[in-house]
Task: structure prediction
Amino acid sequence: MFVVGGDFRHYTKISRELIWANRFAASTSFGPTKLVYYLGGVDNWMGYLFNKYPMFNTSVPVSPKENYGFQAIATNLRGFTQNVRNGNSFALINSELRWPFIRYFAGHPLKSNFLNSLQVVGFGDIGTAWAGPSPWAGENAYDTKIYRNGPVSVTLDSNRKPIVAGFGAGLRAQLMGYFIRADWAWGIENNYIMPRIFYLSFSLDF
Result:
C-alpha cells in the first residue's frame, strides 16, 4: 500500500487577537491494498453522549470493487456524521475565524487559563472523498442505489453529489489541562441544508 498526502495551513491576523485560520488537506492511497477514508465528523468526537444520530453513517455504501485493507477518518468536516462520503482519496478545506473575546477586550493575557483560552469560532468546511481518478468519475459506491427482489435487481442513480460542505459556530477553551471544543454545525448536501449536529470533542486541531 502507498499513501501520498499533505496538510497545509495558513493563519492571518485580522485585528489583535482575531485570527483567520485556513487548512487544506488531501490524501490518496494506491497499490494492491488501499486505505479507505471516511469523510465527516471531528477528531476525538464524543458524539455518543449528546447526539440522537449514530456517529457513523451506514446508509452510504463502500465500494466492494476496491481492495481496502485499512481505514481512517478524514476530518474535520462538520455538519455530518462519519462516512458522508468515502473512498481511497479525499480533499478538504477548513476555514475558521477565531476570537478570544475575553482576552481581546482585556487587552492583556489573563491568569486564568480558561478565560485566557476561551474563543468564539465561526467556521466553514468543504470537501469530498472518492474512488477512481476523480470525484466525478462515476466509480463511487455512493453514486448508485441497488434494489433487489429475488432474481431482479435495479440500479438507480442516487443523485449524491460528491462535494459536501458545512458551516456553523463554536466555543474553544482549555479546562483542567484539556482543550475542549463545542461546535454547532449544519451540513449542506445536494444543495439542501441538513439538520444541526452538536460536536463535543477534545482537540487542538480544526
In short: The two ends are 28 Å apart (CA to CA). The mean pLDDT is 89. The first strand starts at residue 2 and ends at 15. The helical segments are 47-50, 101-106, 113-117.
